[in-house]
């Protein structure tokens, strides 16, 4: 049914087992998530003619599709770090709208935590030492060091404080307390964050994401499949993507992330303003990422992110609930976490989030959400605006 005007909906979502998963392979987590997403959608696997995967296998997504028993006629293996899944969702929505695919399955699984515990892999200091990165790697400039430098620049430029950055971690943990699937749920205080072991100045341990195992899947489909689905659709209203740099020397401004571009594009294409958004799911490998992305998406002015995250504004009952499942700081972070942002946004818009369900004034369910993923060290960004109804 070729048509450049077909609407696209998220019709199935799922989590695979998450947290501490010592007995499954990444392939098994992919399969578990895929089966659950299809079951959630109520559609038969035969409708899936598109597949998107990254991060597993030599020929991703070929190997994963084979493992799942799929033979897609549309594929995507775009790999841009944590923003991969928002970018893939954008590509899939465009393909479905154009009639190049009817239903696209996005799936991810990782045993990052279990592999390190079992000695199957070790930590790495960098993504590689070829190309432009060869000029940074010899100096031990690790990924976390790059985020730490950016955070310090924001503190210098705008007076952002360590306490404000710590508030991001405190609120993420408070949100996780209402999520039975979150890996860490015990409350933490600003003092707990500030007094923790230093990892990369100014980041102590609780400023950094957790390491977990886990997987998830999202099924997108054309509008004509919606009457046959088991759940109410959540529509893809607008998307945006942007890449800005790979080396720190080419990053024009450490206080501006590529979400400043991807967010603007997504909101413009969706025809909505940031002020209309009911909740935001933001990639949070480090506390600074949440703060600066809030600025760049337009929820507050540049330099005001520190003040914005104070006083519970990003909590479940705040004016803009952020990372309602606890985010990568407390819920789960098995690697490229961007797909989890989409799952949680859809769950909230459906009203299926249980104790952590967001309600807007008058007790109504949220109607608009944004998921914004970040890759590398603010190298790439993908933003998706979703709507209920």
TrEMBL record:
Any Pfam family hit: Thiolase_C_1
Residue ranges occupied by any Thiolase C-terminal domain in the UniProt entry: 240-388
Superkingdom of the organism of origin: Bacteria
Signal peptide: none
Protein name: Acetyl-CoA acetyltransferase
Native species: Streptomyces sanglieri
